[in-house]
Amino acid sequence: MPLTHHRLRQKFIRFWKQKDHKEIPPIPLVPKDDPTTLFTGSGMQQLVPYLLGEPHPLGEKLVNIQPCFRAQDIEEVGDNRHTTFFEMMGNWSLGTYFKKEQLPWFMEFLVEEVGLPPEKLYVTVFKGDVGLAPDEESIAVWQATFKKYGISAKLGKRIIQYGNDKNWWSRAGSPKQMPAGEPGGPDSEVFYDFGEKGNFHACHVNCSCGRYLEIGNSVFMQYRKQPDGSFAQLPKKNVDFGGGLERILAAANDNPDIFITDLYFPIIQTIEKLTKTSYAEKTNQPQIRIIADHLKAAVFMAKENIEPSNKEQGYVMRRLIRRAVVKMLTLAVPVPTAVPAVCNAVINIYNNVYLDSSDLVRIQITITKEANSFITTVNKGIKLLQNQTDINGKLLFDLKQSYGFPLEIALEMLQEWEKPIDVSKLKQEFDQEYKKHQQSSRQASAGKFKGGLADHSDQVVKYHTATHLLHQALHEVLGGGVRQEGSNITAERLRFDFYSPQKPTDQQKQAIEELINQKIAESLPVFYQIMPKKEAEKSEAKFFFKERYPEMVKVYYIGRDLKTAYSKEFCGGPHVTNIKKIGKIAIYKLEKIGSNLYRIYAK
């Protein structure tokens, strides 16, 4: 019987808990207090401060499963393994165990819990670089681990060495790109071999044919770059493991197509029922995969109150829905019927995991409204595009302006029709016509995460503390109906999104600003305490409603003690030690961004 995603989740969390790991809850798909990325793109995203040395409230051994989205993979979706939305299974060691524990444990999980045949597993290791030795330790550990299962793991056969482009990780990239003081280290990937069935050929683990599927990667943070360019061992070494739940599930079922798993196939069956289209027909598979992936991602965005728009997360959501609609039209899928049906299928898949039926109607309305509004315009745009012999950037700009036809979709369709075009030239011409396009369509995720706030500069830390003052002032001036919906902090300004039953008046905005500066003038100290979540809730500390918190939390408070503090919030920090360091704060913009949703800019 095929392994279900529910069973795989249970197995993973249980396995690491048995090895004394504490489960940490996932963070929202739209991260809080992080202007470096529009979406959560990895499980380690919330752990960056702790991987860099700050103690975690739950200890040094952690595990979780994190919903993620990577916009840079939009163009890759259509094959049997790429998706934009996925779940990252992760475990971490913050200075406790290292390679000799991590690698055998992961092998144990794959073989003894998931049931993968060990002879189908292949691994990669770091072969070394200038000033960096090959990862001989991982090689030795892997050879001993495979030997336990009766397999001779020869170098170049079962264990393959790659350079820093494949098996090295740091926030800055390759060892040469790392600045002095930056931590980094080798990683070791595990691949599952589906064999030569399915017309796969004899190849290597990094071949793109799909025979070998990467199912997990252990990053070993063990070096810090020195001012002279050399590398020194870190006194406290970390393990950061990430493995795709969808991919491990596909390997468990020995099928290279992740869309056949119970995470996707109910969506595909829904599409098949509404049309004569069959997924078994190979020519239909790329389009159906795009529809399934893109609408699933849109459902998770709608769950977090994102709405299609021309900015940031909303732009990415709009692009996903419209790209799915184009594929539906090419397969004669009835869009007005299919979109809400697919939304229902997605919610059923993740019911009691991340979604529930109470979300259904609102999500269906949000996504179906965007899809239906695009149908008429996309049909006009397609006809206009098909009839043109002279394709240029001005034409594509006009399509965007007149019909809302995204540049990416227009280029994709022209290539499918085999029109003779120069993609780079068309993009350049388009950018000249529409200079603001870059802001709307910027990449939503940078793959590997850079770290919590934009940086930990003095100004960013000051603005971070100022958001706590702003949050409390909003409650005092507007009342208890206010709740935080997100924030974005850079060295130039702070941005705070909030829900309020009524839009603040100009007088209220002025009162909020005056209250913040009044408190700053009182020179109140800032402290934090680590405490059980229930105790923190009893202290009336505010918390971000979209975020799930571990059993032990850090509470920052502004005042001389927690009980009488002016402001207290669940927060990882960092903050100034006294609010007088913030200086004067001015609110320079207040705008409405949705139904009862408002955004404040201040500096």
From TrEMBL:
The keyword RNA-binding applies. GO terms for molecular function: alanine-tRNA ligase activity; aminoacyl-tRNA deacylase activity; ATP binding; tRNA binding. Its EC number is 6.1.1.7. GO terms for biological process: alanyl-tRNA aminoacylation. One of its GO terms (cellular component) is cytoplasm. Residues 3-603 form the Alanyl-transfer RNA synthetases family profile domain. It comes from the Bacteria. Keywords: Aminoacyl-tRNA synthetase, ATP-binding, Ligase, Nucleotide-binding, Protein biosynthesis, RNA-binding, tRNA-binding. PROSITE patterns: AA_TRNA_LIGASE_II_ALA. InterPro entries: aa-tRNA-synth_II/BPL/LPL, Ala-tRNA-lgiase_IIc, Ala-tRNA-ligase_IIc_anticod-bd, Ala-tRNA-synth_IIc_core, Ala-tRNA-synth_IIc_N, Ala-tRNA_ligase, Thr/Ala-tRNA-synth_IIc_edit, tRNA_SAD. NCBIfam families: PRK01584.1 (NF002436). Belongs to the class-II aminoacyl-tRNA synthetase family. This is alanine--tRNA ligase.
